[in-house]
Every structure is written in structure tokens, then in C-alpha cells.
Amino acid sequence: MQAQIKTIKEKAIHEIEKTEDLKILNDLRVKYLGKKGELTLILRGMGALSPEERPIIGSAVNKAKEEVEALIIEKEEKLEQQELNKKLQEETIDITLPSTKIVRGSKHPVNRVIEEIEDLFVSMGYDVEVGPELETDEFCFERLNLPKGHPARDMQDSFYITNEYLLRTQTSSVQARTMLKNTEKTPIRMICAGKTYRREDDATHSHQFSQVEGLVVDYKERNVSLADLKGTLEVFVKRLIGENLDLRFRPSYFPFTEPSYEVDVTCFKCSGKGCPLCKQTGWIEILGAGIVHPNVLRMNGYDPDKFSGFAFGTGLERLAMFKYGITDMRYLYTNDVRFLKQFDRKD
Ligand SMILES: [Zn+2]
Question: Quick check: 233 and 287 in contact, CB under 8 A?
């Protein structure tokens, strides 16, 4: 019987040492030490032995069980450690590798210009107003002295949604909204920037562009004049684009101002010497402006005998081009990241 115990024990030791698998190791534990395990079975069969033999065999079996158990535990720890090491090795993070780049967008040049203009005018006491892009015929035209059938409407090809609604062709609609909204009829100093839409699409025009618009209305005795308009526009253009620029006023026509002017600035490219960009004139048209037409004041609730004012408007793409020296307006709308990223450095 002693020999049988020894054989089982040696077989167990051999199999435990041989295995490299935790699951098989567990099976071996059941096979030798479990309820029906080979060593346990010997203990159960001791009834057949003589009383003298029992303690000897019993102690031998228990000793063998202890040895096998200790060996299994030892092996178990070894295998677990191996598994852990393997896992650690496989899941190592190489902290010296470059991280995934976080791509940060940049402000669009047109938005940069809008922010700069708003800051400048707010510092001069103006309010920033906004209005809807889907506008009524009334606010886009009629209240700006452009009744239905007025020939000057032909200057702006419009996207009509219905007979009464259209995509605004100019931010001037916000002038009418601001005047009407001011029920106290107090003086107004406001600017408004935003998207505008016209039905034109060629190399030099886009069906969607942006405008900024300014309006000043004040008591007549304050005598808001062309000199004030010119002074304001000079500050505007010089601060935004460059101090060494000159302004030139040319008489023009707009339905909502009388008199009306187109304002030119010194060509930023040739400094006034003449180049292809300014068609050799040394000047580039930049703004439309004038003294608010009495009809516009009247239609929006301001008595032209008591109030007067000036208004101006310009294309923001144009301003962005002058400011940053962009030679083709289409760059502003092609969404080329290589182009747009360059303006990050302007901050
Ligand atoms: Zn020029």
C-alpha cells in the first residue's frame, strides 16, 4: 500500500511539474486531492486494513496529500505570475510615442474682421444689432425708400421665397428694424454685420457674401453732418486696414441716402501709384455711405424735421482682402485649411 501511495504521489508530482496551464493544474488538484481523487480514495479504503496498519497508511496518505497540495499551490503562483508578466508585456504603453494630434480650428478671416469692427464701434458708443437673414420685402426694400417696382431694385437680384419673403440682399434691413424697434425715438448709433444673398455667381461675385452696416440718427440740433460721417469712416478704415490710407468721397446714388457717396481708399497694393488691382487709378472703392434719406426716417417713425443722421455699408470680404492682402475673394469660401490656418498667426 505504501508503494501504491508513492506511485500516485510521483505520478502527481510529474504531471504537476509538466503542466504550464492553470486549468490543467486545477484538473490535477481534482484528480488527486478531490472527493473522488486518487489519494482520497485510498483513505476511504482503509476500512479493509488492520488497526495497526491504519495510522501508518493514514499518515502516509495525508503527508502525500500535503506535499501534492503544496506543489500545486507553488505551481499555481508561478503560472499566475507568468500570465501577469505576459499581460504586462503585451499591454505596455510606449509613452515616448507622439500623441494623437488635436486639430484646432481657426477663426475665419471674415469673422475676425467682424469682431474687430464690432470692438472698434462699441468703443465709439455704438450698439451691435442683428436681424433675420430671411427678411420681408417690407424691411429689405420698402422701409428703405425702395417701394415695389422701384427701378433701383434691379441693382439687387434677389432670392425670393414667396412674394413677401426673400433672403436679405443687404444688412440695411436691420437699420429699418432698429429704427422701428426704438419706440422712444431716441438717437441711434448702431452697426450690424452678417450674411447677405444675391442672385449672382461669377468670378468676382458670390451668391452669399457678408456686409457690415452702420447707422447714426440724432437730434437735428446736434447737426450730424457729412464731416462726422467722413471722420467716422476715416477712423474705421485706418484702424482696420492701415493708418497711411487716404479716403476719397465720390457722389453716387443709393435710394436710402441723400446725398450719397461711394468712398474710395488708397490702393493697398501700390500705395496710390497705380497698379492692375486698382486699374491704374491708385484708388479702390470700399464703402457706400450718405446722409439718411428723410423718407427712410419718416417711414420708420422718425420726424425728419427733428432728426437727421448718416449711414454706411460695405462688404466684409472686401475689407478682409484689404486687411490681409488676399488677392482672390474665392479663397475666403473654398474652405482650404491651408489658407485658413494662416490667420492663426494674426492673433
Ligand atoms: Zn493699385
Answer: yes
**pLDDT for res 93:** 81
Residue 225 has pLDDT above 60, yes or no: yes
**In the chain, beta strands by DSSP E:** 127-128, 134-136, 165-167, 188-197, 208-219, 247-254, 257-266, 283-292, 307-315
Backbone angles phi and psi of 282, in degrees to 5: 85, -5
Bridge partner list, 195: 210
Residue 26 in contact with residue 84, Cβ under 8 Å?
no
Average pLDDT over residues 287-301: 96
Q: Are strands 127-128 and 188-197 parallel, antiparallel or unpaired?
A: parallel
Residue 106 makes CB contacts below 8 A (sequence gap 6+) with 340, 341, 343, 344
Residues contacting 180, CB < 8 A, separation 6+: 143, 300, 301
Q: Report how far ligand 1's centroid is from the alpha carbon of 42 (Å).
A: 110
Span of 25-29, 71-75, 90-94, 154-158 with lowest mean pLDDT: 154-158
Q: What is the dihedral of CA 289, 293, 297, 303, to 10 degrees?
A: 130
pTM to 2 decimal places:
0.69
Strands 188-197 and 208-219: antiparallel
177: which residues sit within 8 A by CB, 6+ positions away?
Answer: 129, 131, 139
What's the gap in Å between 266 CA and the centre of ligand 1?
Answer: 8
Q: Measured in angstroms, how far is the CA atom of residue 277 from the centroid of ligand 1?
A: 5
